[in-house]
Task: structure prediction
Amino acid sequence: MSSYILAIDQGTTSLRAIIFDGKLSPVSSDQSEFTQHFPASGMVEHDADEIWHSVIATCRNALSKAKIEPCGYWDN
Result:
């Protein structure tokens, strides 16, 4: 079985999941944007539930693109 690293890059406007192989070469990636809420001038808020769901979906998409079956609990 091969070993991989799944890295999550959480930014202000989007999230990216990148999968690296054992030699640290990128294998696949996926990216998704999420909504920004502006309650007042100079302020920005995010919905934590929306971010969490984007983490799960983006990681699943990156794994699918790489044709990697995840191990562990993914029924969320």
